[in-house]
Specification:
The complex is a heterodimer. By secondary structure, chain A is α+β, with helices and mostly antiparallel strands. Chain A contains three helices and three strands; from the N terminus they run ααβββα. In chain A, helix 1 packs antiparallel against helix 3. By secondary structure, chain B is an all-alpha fold. The chains are: A alpha+beta, B mainly alpha.
């Protein structure tokens, strides 16, 4: 097993990771609408749809600790999976600690292009490619 | 390839020139540090804790957002260099053939269970007695059950634990264990100060918790790094992670390389690059450099996106560290350094 093999695996992982450039390990309720449009069906909650909702999060930047032991909560528009007919995210109305369950936030808005669902084939393909590249490089080195 | 290598070597010229100028000015004052490795490593270790704590108190969100983009990929490279290549594990074909797919799946599927799978495969392939391996497998299964019980908190717990693993590796790597003591004591003191609330006036300042173009929203960090839902404890956990992560980078990028190499004195950038290319081949360092530049460029458009992409890529290295340490423990092997490899 050579450094070339190690390089091949590392580079293949990089290439694979690049296809999930907008991926993270977000909370399950955020991934439910990953890569979907508003109105698409989603699975968390079961039989839900991706909807434009109002999400809630804690506003740490405007927290006056002398006035309150917890930060104030703030609301912002987001796309989340919810039961049909919802207009507000259930977490948004929670007044305290639990209010801080934001949609994955990269500094504004939702990350709706997560590719975590429905792309298992691409992952296995990437893995297969990694193995193939590694095997080819290994073979090339052995034949030298 | 040769052109790229020449370009990298040219980049080293001004760096080494600047280094030479600094050494000319400070060489006499710093002579004991430059000559004695143990003193230098001890001071660097303690300094890395102090600097990390100062940065975390000043701008925790900036530290959490930006440092992975700058230092993340180089530290992954260091991980591979010292834990895999230096230990000559890349020469064990069956081990690589079975563990690499597990680690690749840990990246692709973002599942901690694949990391555990990699550790279990390593245990099975360890050159150790059946009893030792069975015992280690039992521990793995217990860890898996615990992770299942913890649910989403398991990944957060592992993220925190993996930062501490670097410190453990450094202590094991040290030629003189006592040199790590000041850094460990300082780290313990900083941890106690963070969790006792002694540093709340710094880390809970509104200015410290304000997001910006280079600092993500604190809520996203709370959600992915905190083991507590209480806002104050959540920020303490996030700050602790920022501290431990910064030290983790320092350990892999400076302290372990210092302790590993045969040469007692310091080394030029040029020589460091040659040593890196000798260990890993020419491609990996260049790929890592390009990837770091890529993440930094990507961050100019969306720092959160770039950070997320880096962390997705890095998902393999925590399980890798655990797997290698487990293997070495089972085989009762000491960590190999540069001189022990060249002596073989």
């Amino acid at each position: 097993m050579s450094k070339h093999f190690l390089s091949a695996v590392f580079l293949s992982c990089l290439l694979s990771a690049a296809s999930w450039a907008r991926a993270d390990v977000p909370p399950p309720e955020a991934t439910a609408c990953a890569g979907k449009q508003v109105g698409d069906s989603c699975s968390d909650p079961p039989n839900g749809t991706c909807q434009n909702l109002t999400c809630g999060k804690l506003d740490y930047a405007n927290w006056n600790r002398d006035a309150s032991s917890i930060p104030p909560s703030t609301q912002y528009p987001c796309v989340r999976c919810a039961a049909k007919g919802s207009s507000t995210d259930p977490d948004a109305s929670s007044p305290s600690p639990d209010a801080g369950k934001p949609e994955k936030d990269d500094g504004g808005g939702c990350d709706c292009s997560l590719g975590s669902s429905g792309s298992a084939e691409r992952r296995w393909l990437a893995l297969g490619m990694a193995a193939l590249v590694g095997a080819l490089l290994l073979r090339r080195r052995q034949t030298r | 390839m040769v052109l790229v290598q020449q370009l990298v070597l040219r980049l080293m010229v001004p760096l080494d020139a600047a280094r030479g100028m600094v050494l000319q000015q400070t060489g006499r004052t710093l002579a004991p540090l430059l000559r004695q490795r143990s003193l230098r490593v001890g001071v660097l270790g303690a300094l890395s804790v102090v600097v990390a704590l100062a940065l975390v108190c000043a701008a925790p969100l900036l530290v959490l957002t930006v440092t992975p983009l700058l230092l993340g990929v180089p530290h992954l490279l260091s991980d591979l260099r010292y834990l895999v290549v230096r230990q000559q594990l890349h020469e064990r074909r069956l081990l690589v053939a079975l563990v690499v797919p597990c680690l690749a799946l840990a990246v692709l599927e973002a599942q901690l269970s694949w990391g555990l799978c990699a550790v279990m495969v390593t245990v099975l392939l360890a050159r150790a007695s059946v009893t030792s391996r069975a015992l280690a497998l039992a521990v793995c299964l217990a860890a898996g059950l615990l992770a299942h019980q913890l649910g989403p908190k398991a990944a957060i717990t592992f993220a925190h634990v993996h930062n501490l693993i670097a410190l453990a590796v450094w202590v094991l790597w040290s030629r003189e264990r006592r040199v790590a003591a000041p850094a460990l004591v300082l780290f313990l003191a900083a941890t106690v100060m963070l969790f006792s609330g002694a540093l709340d006036s710094f880390v809970l300042r509104p200015a410290a918790l304000s997001s910006g173009p280079w600092a993500l929203d604190p809520n996203s960090f709370v959600q992915t790094l905190s083991l507590s839902d209480h806002p104050i404890w959540a920020i303490r956990f996030v700050s602790f992670f920022a501290l431990a992560q910064s030290i983790h980078y320092g350990v892999w990028l400076k302290l372990i390389p210092e302790d590993d190499r045969t040469r007692v004195g310091i080394r030029s950038f040029h020589a460091s690059y040659h040593a890196l290319a000798r260990d890993l081949g020419p491609w990996l360092p260049i790929a890592a450099l390009l990837l770091t530049l890529g993440f930094c460029t990507c961050a100019c458009w969306g720092v959160g996106v770039a950070r997320d992409a880096y962390f997705r890529l890095a998902l393999f290295h925590g399980p890798l560290e655990v797997a290698v340490l487990t293997l070495l423990a089972l085989e009762r092997r000491a960590l190999r350094r540069e001189d022990s490899v060249s002596a073989d």
